[in-house]
Amino acid sequence: MASVAVDPQPSVVTRVVNLPLVSSTYDLMSSAYLSTKDQYPYLKSVCEMAENGVKTITSVAMTSALPIIQKLEPQIAVANTYACKGLDRIEERLPILNQPSTQVSLGQKC
């Protein structure tokens, strides 16, 4: 008898990043950041140095943390399940999360 593969539940981080409001806001901010870097060469060089530093630190941190993450994987899975249930509730109560930032109105201007 063939077994059926069950897709694991997506991580809460993946779900949050894929929310239309979050992803569209990230895209807008990323575009503004890249545009600013292109317009100001000195700022671009400073930003690129900072980016390289963050990449290096992140790589070292992930390498160091990987054994701990692997050991805590069952607990992380349980926490992810609860976080996803909480996100389900938040999405129900805040439908604005499923709209891109270009469609969101923050109220009237004074």
From TrEMBL:
Superkingdom classification of source: Eukaryota
Any matching Pfam family: Perilipin
A GO term from the CC aspect: lipid droplet
Keyword NAD: no
Entry's localization field: Lipid droplet
Record keyword Acetylation present: no
Main location: other
Keyword set, alphabetical order: Lipid droplet
Family: Belongs to the perilipin family.
PANTHER family referenced in this protein's UniProt entry, alphabetically: PERILIPIN, PERILIPIN-2
Name this polypeptide is given: Perilipin 2
Species: Homo sapiens
